[in-house]
Amino acid sequence: MDRYQRVEKPREETPINENEIRITAQGRMRNYISYATSLLQEKGSNEIVLKAMGKAISKTVMIVELIKCEFLNFLPIMMMQRRIVGLHQNAVIGSTDITDTWEPLEEGLLPLETTRHVSVISITLSRKELDTSAVG
């Protein structure tokens, strides 16, 4: 592939809900955590959804755990009994196919298209109880 370069395709911009956070491998964890906690505490959102693909998945899981710890610090002590009351979590995992286009750097070569299977995760944190029949 040293004779090819990947062509950046314009992404299809899907609208992002106000309570949705898309985690990237380059983003700073502190920023994601502070934004999520501000949605839950200051803006009064009952539910936030964190989404990630590929290398950002492990970062997303860590961010969710830190958000849950941060959220527990603000709950009254009476609410924290034997079972943690406060945030409910539901995780959905899957994969998606991403097609990359490669243009040749030398004449005589044909353009290539490759397909990658990339893992995806979507974690919902909610103040209200989520679907108990869901797997995640």
**SSE string, helices as H and strands as E:** EEHEHEE
* Computed structural class: alpha+beta
* Beta strand count: 5
Helix proportion: 10-25%
Number of domains: 1
Shape: elongated
Tally of individual helices: 2
CATH-level-4 superfamily name: Alba-like domain
What do the pLDDT scores average to?
Answer: 87
First-last Cα distance: 39 Å
By CATH, the topology is Translation Initiation Factor IF3
Low-confidence segments? 77-84
In terms of DSSP E residues, the strand content is 25-35%
Radius of gyration: 20 Å
Largest sheet: 5 strands, mixed
CATH architecture descriptor: 2-Layer Sandwich
Q: What is the strand arrangement across the widest sheet?
A: 1-4-5-3-2
Task: Return the CATH class.
Answer: Alpha Beta
Give a structural overview:
With 136 residues, the protein is of the alpha+beta class. The protein has one domain: Alba-like domain (Translation Initiation Factor IF3), CATH 3.30.110.20. Helix content is 22%, strand content 34%. It is built from two helices and five strands. Helix 1 (29-41) links the parallel strand 2 and strand 3. It is elongated, with a radius of gyration of 20 Å.
